[in-house]
């Protein structure tokens, strides 16, 4: 029987503790990843919300940029929430900041505007159903192409995308009670 899968949570900055707790609540193993050696120990990776420019800079500093890209090329599942969605994107509107450039999407940062910097909404998600989404200075996806598939929209804005082993959400499932998105990701692993 294969051993239990270990889900790594990138722990450079942002909401990594909450993701770790949610994965453990699902009955799976989670561990924090800060170094390439730690990435080697995990079967999948979550890139949390936070500040995408900061997480991107730290990734490069710790040599995790190339390490994550190499594992992605070998098919390791990766899920990015919010800042993580931005870091997975190939294109970022109006920005030349570092990104992993793995998903066929163009994102817009802080895209929901000032008045609604943070808000909650019910979302309908393909294959999953209805869940509550918390958006915090969230991006949305302006464009998808290639292999990327839209899983959810809020109003007409794309807020969840899957591309084979890669998943991204503009909202923060680690901050709500339900575990349905974490379970969906675990099923991908
Ligand atoms: N606005 C942040 C960024 O652009 C993302 C916010 C978040 O992750 N909650 O990096």
List the defining traits of the structure above.
189 residues, alpha/beta, Rossmann fold, seven-stranded mixed β-sheet, three-stranded mixed β-sheet, binds glutamine
- Return the CATH topology: Rossmann fold
Q: Quote the beta fraction.
A: 25-35%
CATH superfamily heading: Class I glutamine amidotransferase (GATase) domain
> What is the CATH architecture term?
3-Layer(aba) Sandwich
Strand line-up across the major sheet: 2-1-3-4-12-11-10
Distinct small molecules bound, one entry per kind: glutamine
Form type: globular
Structure overview:
The chain is an alpha/beta fold and 189 residues long. The chain has one domain (6-188): Rossmann fold. The protein contains six helices and twelve strands. The chain has helices at residues 16-25, 36-39, 52-61, 64-73, 83-88, 180-188; strands spanning 6-10, 29-33, 44-47, 78-81, 89-92, 103-108, 118-125, 129-136, 140-144, 149-154, 157-163, 166-169. The strands form three sheets. The chain has a seven-stranded mixed beta sheet. Strands 5-6-9 form a three-stranded mixed beta sheet. Strand 11 (157-163) and strand 12 form a beta hairpin. The chain is globular. It starts with 5 loop residues before the first strand and ends with a helix. The mean pLDDT is 96. Bound molecules: glutamine (GLN). The site of glutamine has 11 residues, from helix 5.
